[in-house]
Amino acid sequence: MSPTPSDGKGEGNALLSRWSDVGRWRELCPHLTISDSVAFGGGSVGGCGKVDTEKIRERLVDDGYALLNHDICSESLRERVRGGISDLEARRLPATFVLLFDQTWELASASHRLLLSNRGQNRGILRANEMAFNFDMLAWNIDPRRDQAGFSPHRDRQPDSVPALKKSFYSDGQAKYVTHWIALSEASPENSCLYVIPREFDPGYANGDDPPEEDVEQQCDESNGANATEHISPLSRALSTKESYQNIRALPRRAGQSLLFTHRIMHWGSRGNKRAIGVEPRTAISFVYSDVEFEPPYLADESFSEDGNHRWKAPPFETRLLLVCAQLLIYYQRFDLSAEAIRACYEYCKANAQELHESYRKKVFVEFVKAMKEMRDGNNVVDANGSGTNDVGGPGRIDEPNSEDEEALLEEMLDNSDEFDDDFDEMCKWQREQESSY
Questions:
Q1: What integer pLDDT is reported at residue 400 of this predicted model?
Q2: What gap in Å lies between CA 75 and CA 61, rounded to an integer?
Q3: DSSP strand E in 161-293: where?
């Protein structure tokens, strides 16, 4: 794996040089470690004793989510990871950089043992023979005092047809994509917690988000024949009456508790109360598990694997950094990223593209193109000169293409995604040519 590209991209390489400095990360988070080779394992499932896996599976099928009320790991481990995120936040670094540290992977190994254990009587909650650790990992530090909120209402995956949606579940109703969300601090309505619309109250959960024709016809009649289909969102279908708002379910968690939810559950992170007395940030981390046919792992399987002694070997630092860079691009609109940081993430991903699964690599490049288009339009992506002394800065937002030229460029780049060159300079050149022709 290439630690830092050497093709002359100045700003991105300068930032990558800092990101690639293991000693610097150790100084930033002194109570966390980064080891050349480290493995975790042993103990009971998830380190938390007996779990009623059947009841949890039932809740996942019937409700689309399930609460895990025991501690997933030791308080010491949880506090170290939470403290590391706090240290990163103090330097205005996204919480997801905590993936660089051993303790995050120790926590991931505890999650893995709980969900996919295939040994003795400690059977995991999910299908160990068909599902795998996906590497879709994110961390959050939501501070209500800064008026922050979690993700807005969404589903994690949206199959492109009803038959494909049906295939995203096993025959017994178990989902082929499940997220394990772990509270590292208290998560409450006061400082932000997750909210969901349970399966039974969500008409699009199992049948798709295109409304039945009779619903469209009725709404068209009510709107005097106007085309009303564009106004029927999945959220408005689920919340079609005043009484339906009573179906929204808050899922507060104390530190150490966690929850599971499927790819189809409508969920979001709330905005906390910035005036609450003694309120602290809501810190959390999530790990995804998926059927390898439905969505293959983002990285090579051996990146996080179990040895003959049932110990989980964490990936090397370079692979962890690759995953951080890729995740920052995939979710760039949710992070404070400078243009310099976006370039650095792309350069590192491009230099190590062979380490990423093909489908994930394409998603990463898609988001990079969108971010560049956003930079061209000057929409909320801060240039490196405006980002202060931190490593990343400035909010991001995804906008749809606003011209046929942009659409054609995006399509051309995606069609040739396997042969992606370092496109930033070429993109900038194209932008200047387009602007001069306006």
A1: 39
A2: 30
A3: 177-183, 194-197, 249-251, 258-262, 266-269, 282-291
